[in-house]
UniProtKB/TrEMBL annotation:
Protein name per UniProt: Aspartic proteinase nepenthesin-2-like
Domain Peptidase A1: residue ranges: 83-453
Gene behind the chain: LOC104229193
InterPro entries: Aspartic_peptidase_A1 (IPR001461), Pepsin-like_plant (IPR034161), PEPTIDASE_A1 (IPR033121), Peptidase_aspartic_dom_sf (IPR021109), Plant_Aspart_Prot_A1 (IPR051708), TAXi_C (IPR032799), TAXi_N (IPR032861)
UniProt keyword list: Aspartyl protease, Glycoprotein, Hydrolase, Protease, Signal
Region forming the signal peptide: 1-24
Gene Ontology BP terms: proteolysis
Similarity section: Belongs to the peptidase A1 family.
Record bears the keyword Acetylation: no
A molecular function (GO) term: aspartic-type endopeptidase activity
Residues at the catalytic site: D101, D326
Organism: Nicotiana sylvestris (Wood tobacco)
Length: 458
């Protein structure tokens, strides 16, 4: 997450919009998790191309991140490649849809009737927004509120507030400075507020959430589930975060699975675990502290180990290298130095099918194979091997997808370049949600472990 401060004029205009409301259980929570559709009219090739390009944009953002200003919840899949949850904020509750994102920590929603979204697939007038004036519990975060530093971790917000510089800081009535958040595709900006979060089995007062006044390419709010202090799990005091992503094939479905925020310490059954690694601590790169790093030790294709230089697998002193799990990325990203040997392993082992360069250029995915005329197709198994001995054998549908009229299949992973210098900053491997379909995954936040098992999600 990256942030900056608005010009004074924009800041004052935001204050005028928000002025009407400015003022000086241990059981698991389960929330439905579903897909979120932003452009249902795209044809199949457009969707693949879009998902590949968005996955790359997301990877570039994660790899270049700079500093910036048990509950069960239904989790739904969407054709744009992500998953969403619905949360109720305010008194009385106003229900809003949020994209579930383990790669960031801030929670925000489109806010006020003046909300504007540029370059969105739908008009701003058709985007549901939170209306603070309709809630009796909404309050703007003040400069003296400790949660202001959650929004602006790299600076002292008080230094931005003239009233808070006087000897008698108790007279400070200024609000916390506005935020701007940059994502791989798009951005958003607004003010931090504290509001009541209404979950199925509990109410959470004074929950920090962003009241965004404008966005670019962000037609819905984002619920950050990362490791930062402002994330939804951390604000709820959850000890575990788990979910099972229902299968999505570039379309929207009414099916949903459950996202579980658990405050208990009960052990889950039949999971393979690998440690959640300590995040790299690098000056001016606080965003690295939000990611879930895991120790990927090797990749095998058809049982054969892929030769990967070790420096890709472990973060160095600059925070470059290593592997993260990111629900906001669709197709898994591999640095070019990893992708090429993985791709070559498939090309060398897949026999009897010709490469289809036309589809590769069209979709941005490779390798793609022409399988027309074949009733069955046998492909090498892809397996990720993690620190501690955990092995993730992916279902075939999680790493190869049928393209067109069932005559072409493509590897659903992306890389940063075809030629030129490699983008070497940040994580080398970003495990995306497409590869996690029909896997139950658990982030054991208390014991710092990442667990998984194959499971039909429903």
């Amino acid at each position: 997450m990256a942030s900056a401060f608005f010009p004074l004029l924009l800041f004052l205009s935001i204050l005028s919009l928000l002025f009407p409301f400015i003022s000086s259980s241990n059981s698991p929570t389960t929330i439905p998790l579903s897909l979120f559709n932003t452009n249902p009219n795209q044809d199949f090739y457009q969707k693949l191309t879009h998902l590949a390009s968005v996955s790359l944009a997301r990877a570039h953002h994660i790899k270049n991140s700079q500093d910036s200003s048990v509950s069960k919840i239904p989790l739904y899949p969407h054709s744009y490649g992500g998953y969403s949850i619905t949360l109720g904020f305010g008194t009385p509750p106003q229900k809003m849809s949020f994209i579930m994102d383990t790669g960031s920590s801030f929670v925000w929603f489109p806010c006020t009737k003046k909300y504007q979204c540029s370059k969105c697939p739908v008009s701003s007038q058709n985007i549901p927004t939170f209306v603070p004036k309709l809630s009796t519990s909404a309050k703007v975060v003040g400069c003296l509120n400790p949660k202001c530093s959650w929004i602006h971790p790299k600076t002292n917000p008080k230094s931005r507030c003239q009233d808070c510089q006087s000897p008698n800081t108790s007279n400070c009535k200024q609000v916390c400075p506005p935020y701007i958040i940059l994502y791989g595709a798009g951005s958003t900006g607004g003010l931090g507020i504290v509001e009541t979060l209404n979950l199925p089995n509990k109410k959470i007062p004074n929950f920090l959430v962003g009241c965004s006044l404008f966005s670019s390419q962000q037609p819905a709010g984002i619920a950050g589930f990362g490791r930062g202090i402002s994330s939804l799990p951390n604000q709820l005091g959850a000890k575990k975060l788990s979910y099972c992503l229902v299968s999505h094939r570039f379309d929207d479905t009414s099916k949903s699975s459950m996202l579980v925020l658990d405050s208990s310490n009960e052990k889950s059954a039949n999971l393979s675990y690998t440690p959640l690694l300590k995040n790299p601590v690098v000056a001016r790169r606080n965003a690295l502290l939000e990611y879930y790093y895991v120790g990927l030790r090797k990749i095998t294709v058809g049982g054969q180990k892929v030769k990967i230089p070790y420096h890709y697998l472990t973060p160095n002193s600059k925070g470059d290298g290593g592997t993260i799990v990111d629900s906001g990325t669709t197709f898994t990203f591999l640095n070019h130095g990893i992708f090429e040997p993985v791709m070559s392993a498939f090309v060398n082992q897949v026999k009897g099918f010709s490469r289809t360069e036309k589809i590769e250029k069209l979709t941005g995915l490779r390798p793609c194979f022409n399988v027309s005329g074949h009733k069955t197709v046998s492909l090498p198994e892809l397996k990720f091997h993690f620190k501690g001995g955990a092995e993730m054998a992916l279902p075939l549908a999680n790493y190869f997808s049928i393209v067109g009229e069932k005559d072409v299949i493509c590897l659903t992973m992306v890389t940063d370049r075809d030629s030129g210098s490699e983008l070497s900053t940040g994580p080398s491997i970003i495990l995306g949600n497409f590869q996690m379909q029909n896997l139950f995954v658990e982030f054991d936040l208390k014991n710092e472990k990442f667990g998984f098992r194959q499971q039909v999600c429903k």
